[in-house]
Amino acid sequence: MNSTDPNTFPFVKYSIGFLKEILSERDDLKQYVPHIASVEHLLCKRSIDMFNEAGSGKRDGIFVLNHGDFHLKNIMIQKNEDKLTDVKLLDYQISIFGSPAIDLHYAFTMMFSPEMRRDHYDELLYFYITNFQDTLRKTEYKGHIPTHIEIRQELAKHRYWGLFLLLCFLLFNYTFVDENKDIADVVENAEILRKELEDPKLLDELREQLPKFLYNGYFEL
Fold this sequence. Notes:
The protein has one domain. The strands form 2 sheets. The protein has a two-stranded antiparallel sheet. A two-stranded antiparallel sheet has the order 2-3. It is 56% helix and 9% strand. The protein has helices at residues 10-24, 33-51, 101-110, 114-119, 121-138, 148-157, 159-168, 170-175, 183-188, 190-197, 200-215, and strands at residues 64-66, 75-80, 83-89, 96-98. α1 crosses α10. The chain is mainly alpha-helical. The protein has 11 helices and 4 strands.
């Protein structure tokens, strides 16, 4: 996204507009449309700024090596008698040095189930942070080890990336699990995209997630 105009992709260009229409048609969701409308013009721009941050000279946050496409289809898991023995990440084509918010926001949108997002967000984030800290200590890293608060501040700082993923990418968490659906059709065909955005399961999750994003200040300018 840091080198391509995201608006050339129909699902990015049309997703938010379609979603606002769909939310407007539902009494319990239409209240979020003005909030989305107030920030939608910033989502792509701020996300691209985040991707370019390391090369801009403005390094005032935490920077790590991000995988860039962190979801289950890019992970190999080895088990022995139902015990996890190894995990390997695949497909590093869009790895990027930048805020940990890049992979964290993406993982919570694309990797985890609705139940995990709803019930285990804090637990999973705590697990990531403590393992990150332990790894830095084991490798005898001499610099500052980020605190829990500092990692959470990164997520808040790059909230527009998290909101962009919620509004444009969350639907793929549902289309990926249906082997009869062609992801390319959803990405390239606006009519199919709109139909997918009306998925009752997706809308049910938005009923849970949109209030959380609102209460956590993700719609603030």
